[in-house]
């Protein structure tokens, strides 16, 4: 077995009496897409915010490429190669693709001025790597389609050498054509060895792009399963009833290493 890109072992996060994450373990390998599933309040967002450095855990261990890490901020997670692509993308609508790509991390010339030419050139290269049909790098992102905006957000993450992506509802509010485009981008990233956690409520998307699923309910791990070994009805049973099918890995005990 290769060393996982990420291991989260026995994670805990409490907000007063609320146990938002209660002894959850999961892992992500290079070139793998893992879907994080569960109703609102299941704990998936809190778990991912721990990995992204937004929340400090109250217990548990995080390993990145086999090394134990402790994130004090999202910047720490970024330095470890972890980038989050939020559902609302966090793009500046009045700025073009290159400006959004380098926002807050602008390239400068030897004289300390903004190197607009280099930023435009490199933005075009990374955009076309992800989506060869994307050519509107000069337009403000408010003029782009939803799928093109996703391309900009993904490019921003990959340009700064992210190896682990967290994608929150990546196809939300997209039409069928753009949804297929984003799925194709995800498959391309997988081929490049990028590991991806996807939070999604769209079961069809999960079955189209994910290799495994991790299901949470009321802060606890229901189980994990290979997508190829479960049906949509079985996954719904995990989400709604907290019931694991025979093919799913058993519920982890708090603090136990992932299976």
Q: What is the helical fraction, as a range of percent?
A: 25-40%
Outline: globular
- Cα-atom Rg, whole angstroms? 19 Å
Give the integer mean of the pLDDT values.
88
Q: Which residues sit in consecutive blocks of at least 5 with pLDDT less than 50?
A: 252-259
Order of helices and strands: EEEHEEHEHHHEHEHEEH
Structure description:
This protein is of the alpha/beta class and 259 residues long. Helices cover 31% and strands 24% of the residues. The chain is built from eight helices and ten strands. It has helices spanning 44-51, 74-79, 97-101, 116-130, 146-159, 176-191, 203-209, 232-241; strands spanning 6-15, 18-28, 33-37, 59-64, 67-69, 82-85, 164-168, 195-199, 212-217, 220-226. The strands form two sheets. The chain has a six-stranded mixed beta sheet with strand order 6-7-8-3-9-10, sandwiched between helices. The chain has a four-stranded antiparallel beta sheet with strand order 2-1-4-5, covered by helices on one side. Strand 9 (212-217) and strand 10 form a beta hairpin. It is globular. Mean pLDDT is 88; it is low at 252-259.
């Amino acid at each position: 077995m290769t060393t996982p890109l990420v291991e989260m072992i026995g994670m805990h996060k409490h907000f007063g009496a609320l146990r938002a994450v209660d002894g959850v373990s999961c892992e992500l390998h290079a070139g793998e897409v893992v879907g994080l599933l569960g109703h609102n309040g299941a704990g998936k967002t809190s778990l991912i915010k721990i990995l992204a450095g937004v929340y400090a855990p109250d217990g548990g261990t995080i390993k990145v490429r086999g090394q134990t890490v402790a994130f004090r901020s999202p910047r720490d997670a970024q330095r470890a190669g972890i980038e989050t692509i939020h559902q609302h993308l966090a793009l500046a609508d009045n700025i073009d693709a290159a400006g959004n790509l380098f926002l807050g991390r602008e390239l400068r010339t030897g004289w300390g001025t903004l190197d607009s030419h280099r930023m435009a050139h490199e933005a075009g290269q990374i955009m076309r790597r992800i989506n060869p049909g994307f050519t509107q790098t000069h337009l403000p992102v408010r003029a782009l389609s939803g799928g093109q905006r996703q391309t900009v957000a993904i490019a921003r993450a990959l340009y700064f050498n992210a190896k682990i992506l967290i994608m929150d509802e990546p196809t939300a509010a997209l039409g069928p054509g753009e949804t297929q485009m984003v799925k194709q981008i995800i498959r391309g990233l997988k081929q490049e060895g990028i590991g991806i956690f996807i939070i999604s409520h769209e079961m069809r998307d999960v079955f189209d792009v994910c290799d495994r699923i991790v299901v949470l309910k009321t802060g606890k791990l229901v189980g994990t399963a290979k997508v190829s070994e479960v049906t949509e009805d079985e996954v719904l049973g995990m989400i709604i009833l907290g019931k694991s099918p025979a093919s799913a890995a058993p519920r982890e005990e708090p603090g136990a290493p992932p299976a």
